[in-house]
Each structure stands twice: as structure tokens, then as C-alpha cells.
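Worked example 2:
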Amino acid sequence: MTDLLAPLSDEQDFLLITMSGPYVASGKWPTWHFVRQTLDREGLDADKLIQSLPRVGRPPGQGMSYGLAWSNRPHFISDDQQPGLTIAAALHIPDLIPAMAQPFLNVLRALVEIHRAVPLSPDKVVQATFNPEMIRRALPSISDLFMARLIAIMDHEPATWGGSRWGSDEEWTRELGREISRYGGLTDLKSYVARVVELMPEPVESVNGPVQAESFRFSSPLVIRDLPRSVTGFNSVPEVAPAPEPQAPPAPPPPVYVDESLIKELEETNATTQWDVTKLVQLLRELNSNFAAENPYSCLALLRAILDHVPPVLNAPDFNQAASNYKWGQTDKATDRVYAVKLRDARALGDDALHRQIRRKPDLISMDDVPSRRYLNAILRHVIDAL
């Protein structure tokens, strides 16, 4: 699996939630023993799941690569190790956006400006460097908590790979490579991840086909054709058939927030249930339309409307009560109940989208603030089952 933006399975999603929770709370990644034991209790294999997460670039040991998670020993993680998640994981875990991703993107923009401001000399090499004080001057509102996390984050992001030098005052200095300029002009998390993917090296291929590695899938093998030879033994010029007219690739389907199969299933239940789901179906279709058009305010407003609409089916007066008191199954307590709580907590974003009045400063809501589609799809499954 090589698409960092593609939806994850429920099991992969649960792994990321288990790893990210302690980090958001304390700034420290949990030990692998904690992760293993937590997943073991749900009948899941943490070691296989972390290997199954999407990754781009070269196979391990053959060059640069980047994925949703990192580990100092990816093929064998001991109980006392503390593997972590990358900035790309925030695409799937919204809680990581304010704790990790957005501050890093702010730092990245500052580093691009620092690199561009370094005076050039025709006579010598001038190496651009930066330190914490330069970041604090560029970003006065950056928190000390995030600055304490920054070195570890930069070590696992391609834009900031490189070593640090530590001084006697416990302050560090880090070199800025010329590659940093390739990350200029990025506006949000999705564009950053897309740029990382764009700059990653292609998977290694050979004449016998791509190098195979578990948890990686590469393109079709390279084909080398022998040129026809003349009777003298030298290569002659072969007849070349006219190339077929290039055809434009079919347009990809628009992204959806709610699975179409769930919407169709809802429509089919309308004839047999005591509840009228006509409005719910319409809200879901409008949500999909605005998600495809990347309208974050509309998505957040519609998501709040949906969460306010469904609680009676879940035998609750409001979604807060549904998230807290619904009779989740044993497995669902570790996944779907977590999703319901995250949707409940995201209600403030809907309030922001609907009720914040105009002010002198711009709003900062983007598509990155829309909760993971997996959360709502899981809750809709319960709604359909309860109809």
C-alpha cells in the first residue's frame, strides 16, 4: 500500500489512535509493549499492522522512504522501543494536527524564509543553519512544549532530515539543505504530504521485475527489448510502427466522505423502518458533494447537522448522550465508541463554522479540520442496524 492519503482499515486506524493518544497527552510516544498489549486485547497484531501502513519510496535498507509511522528498528520492534508517527499520520488522526502537524508546517514555512534570506557569495560556500532562537523570532507564538518536541519531529520528516550540533548551553544548531526550498508555498497538511510523495525516489526496479518487499507494492517490471541485428553483426535501424494516439486517462472518481453503499442501504430501509430517513440521506449526499468540492465550512456544518439528527435512532436525546451511553459491542468499545467521542468533541468546529462572526483576522479552518470519514461511516453503520 503506497497511498499515504488513502483511507485506512479499522485495524490500522485503531493502531494509530493507540499510538497517538499518549503523545497528544504528554508529548511522548508509548512503549511498544503498551501498544502490543492494547491491541492484543482486541485480537489484533500490532507488529503486522505497523508493517502494513502505507509507505512511499524505496524498500527498507535500499534508500529513502516515508510512511505514517517510524521505528529505529522497523523489522523488529522490542517492547521497550517507542516508535512514533509522522506528520502524514495527522491526515488520519485529527488530534495530531494541533499537537504536531500545524506547528511543524509553521516552522517549515519559517525555515524556507530563513534559507532564502542567507546571503550568497561567489567565492565560497555559505551553509545555511538555524537554531531554536531563530525559530522563536520568526514564530513568537510558538509554544515551549512544541519546541521541546521539534528535534524528534524533524528527524523523521524528509524536509528537515539532517543532524544537529549541540552547544554547551544545551542549544542546538541544524543545517538547512537546499532541498528545503522545494517545500516553499505549501498551504496545508495535504499539500505537504503530496510534496513529500512527489520528491520521494521511485521504487527500485530490475529487468526481472520490481524488488519485492512485504507491505510494499510496486509498478510493473521494466521491459528491455533487443534491437534486431544485421548480417554484419551491427545493430540496424528497425522499422518502427507508428505510435498509437495517446488517450487521456479516465478522470478519477470524486472523493467521498460517506460510503455510497451506506447511503443506498439507508434508502432501502426507508420502506421498512418507523423512522423517515429522507432528510438524513439528503444531508449525507450534500456532505459528499461538499467534501469533493473541498468546502470545509459546509462539511463541518453538515456534519454537525447529521450528528444532531440521528440520536433518536440510537435511543439518546442528543449525540453527547449517544457517544457516552450507547450500548457498544465489546469490540466496538475500542473503535466505534472512540470514533463517536471524537465526533462529539468535533462539534466545536461546527459551532465555529456556523456561528463565528466576522472579525479583522482571517479564519484558519481548512479541509484538514474535517474529522476522519471513518468516524462517521462507523456511526452510520450503527444507525442503520438500529433502524
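The chain is about 40% helix and 5% strand. Strands lie at 55-57, 65-67, 69-70, 84-85, 129-130, 164-166, 172-175, 205-206, 209-210.
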